[in-house]
Specification:
Blueprint: E1 8-15, H1 20-29, H2 32-39, H3 44-65, E2 74-76, E3 82-84, E4 92-99, E5 102-109, E6 114-119, H4 126-132, H5 135-142, H6 146-167, E7 186-191, E8 194-200, E9 207-213, E10 219-225
Parallel strand pairs: 1-10
Antiparallel strand pairs: 1-5, 2-3, 4-5, 6-9, 7-8, 8-9
Length: about 230
């Protein structure tokens, strides 16, 4: 059984491109709601990635809770953030993110946590900058050289997404009111009457990823998830 130290965050990464037999095994581990969500996907690759990511979540959580992957039970907050509904005496908090064929899962004890991963495209959408960046972010972003703007866009975006996911209020949080530094790898940020530690994470190119957690939890331990 895996254990998390009080000041520690466990970060798991895993690939979502599985073969047909692996997907069948993963699908069998999902509950009724997850299977129904999977079956609504029109795109086969999106369906596969959803199934693989949910099974990854279940298999990793089973290592911390001593229950089988298929019997891990989830509850959902008012704004649909999932949490462990049973077998959680250590008060494990978690958050999952995936982008195309790569997923990241973050876990810690007792405090909300958020993680986001994005696979960089060749371009970014200027309309997102206009609508969701703060005035300070826009000013700093517009001063960058053209070659610097694409990675800077994703550095800001994944940290915004991570902190929104940590807060767990979804669209009730205004992304434009969250002011992120353009260049810093780590920073402390106060929003929604809480102070958060924001950090970029180690990910291979072309992915960018970030974590938002309690300021006392800056010991990051990385794991690689390998499906059966």
């Amino acid at each position: 059984m895996k254990k998390i130290k009080p000041n520690e965050v466990h970060i798991w990464s895993g690939g979502l491109n599985l073969d047909a037999a692996q997907i069948q095994t993963c699908y069998a581990q999902l509950n009724k709601d997850e299977k129904e969500r999977a079956d609504r996907f029109v795109s086969p690759i999106h369906r596969q990635h959803f199934i693989a990511a949910r099974a990854m979540l279940r298999n990793i959580l089973s290592q911390y809770t001593k229950v089988s992957p298929e019997t891990v039970e989830f509850g959902y907050s008012e704004h649909q953030k999932p949490f462990l509904a049973t077998n959680n005496p250590e008060h494990i908090e978690f958050n999952l993110s995936h982008s195309q064929d790569k997923a990241l899962l973050a876990l810690n004890l007792n405090y909300p946590i958020g993680i986001d991963i994005e696979k960089m495209r060749d371009t970014y959408n200027p309309a997102i900058v206009d609508r969701y960046f703060s005035p300070e972010e826009k000013t700093a972003f517009n001063k960058l050289q053209a070659s610097e703007k694409l990675p800077a866009f994703y550095r800001v975006w994944v940290r915004k997404e991570a902190i929104v996911k940590a807060i767990g209020k979804g669209l009730y949080i205004s992304l434009a009111e969250i002011d992120i530094s353009i260049n810093k790898e780590t920073e402390m940020l106060e929003t929604d009457k809480q102070i958060w530690f924001l950090s970029m994470l180690k990910t291979p190119s072309p992915w960018q990823a970030a974590l938002a957690c309690h300021p006392d939890k800056q010991m990051l331990t990385y794991f690689e998830y390998v499906p059966a």
